[in-house]
Amino acid sequence: MKHYAGLDLSMETTQVCIVDENGGKIASMKVESAPNRIAQALHEVGGVERAVIETGRMSPAICHGLRSLGVPVVCIDARQAHQSLKALKANKTDPHDAAGLAQLARTGFYKEVHVKSPAAHGVRSVITARNHLVEARVRLDNMIRGLCATFGFKPGPGQGKAFIDRVMEAANIPGLGQSINALLAVRTGLMKQIKEMDLVLREVAHRSQSCRQLMSIPGVGVQTSAAFAAAVDEAGRFRQSRAAGAYFGLVPRRHQSGEVDWTGRITKQGDSMVRKLLYEAANSILTRSRGSFALKGWAMKIAKRRGLRKARVALARRLAVIMHAMLRDGTLFEA
Which secondary-structure segment (H or E) carries 312? Predict the structure, then answer.
């Protein structure tokens, strides 16, 4: 008789529930959240036909670890699983969640998601760390401006050497100098780390053939190419390139029910970081790119009809489609 397992992951422990092909519960236990411990628990009942886990921060490590140990594990969309589990049980507990996931594994009523490779997660971790460092630097700059304004000193716009030189003048103001010096010391450390992250990203883009292909598009730089390649990971998992636009939430939201049928703003589903970078790349093409090519001309026509903002969104979606096609076919951008 075939067995199916549901795994409700947490940081320290994982609730495991195993059911047979008729839905009857075979075992329910709590084990340490480690691939070898989970695999051992599943093998003790004779193995399983399929195990199901939800998407989460621990899912990639557990999923890759279980697959390396020969456990057939499927990672499913947590949003869909939440709606299904809510309908199955009134009370939300770890045993109930694991039992619900086991039933989903048995029936096949789930949406499987792609688990990215460790290399892709490594690139994403560098980009995420850099973004947080930049946000921290911006907050420091705003704090410095606010403190200076309290004392009647205006550092003015900018963030480079000229800004630092103007702020250093405020260090001589009584009651302000010590605070400014402390913030500038922290800011110097942040800028150093940001530059190191930039060097790492440039090295990654230089070594990656996928990034070099994507950077042949005007307006697409190191960060955008690396983030997109890491998010897609395997180009073959999309049957059609146009699915990339929907994957990054750049297609209109639609609701249809009987006589009601409306189309709204973009869905904003998927990877928000890549969506933001695609939008910035589209803006760069429209406002900074000096050359004239078909893609830019197409977006400029939309800008004249619907406005620059909607043109950026449309161009970002088109960029996602083109970039996926380039990764799939191994080609360069043709203006």
Answer: helix 308-329
Element spanning 28, H or E? strand 25-32
How many C-beta neighbours within 10 Å does residue 324 have? 23
For residue range 226-258, list pLDDT tens digits in order.
999 999 999 999 999 999 999 999 999 988 888
**112-115, long-range: CB < 8 A, 24+ apart:** 112/74, 112/75, 112/76, 113/55, 113/75, 113/76, 113/77, 114/233, 114/234, 114/237, 115/59, 115/60, 115/63, 115/64, 115/75
Taking the model in full, what pTM does it have? 0.89
Residue by residue, DSSP assigns 240-294 as STTHHHHHTT-SEEEEEETTEEEEEEE---S-HHHHHHHHHHHHHHHHT--S--H
Beta bridge partners of 31: 14
- Report CA 110 to chain centroid distance, whole Å: 21
For the segment 42-90, what is each residue's pLDDT rounded down to a tens digit?
999 888 999 999 999 999 999 999 999 999 999 999 888 888 888 777 6
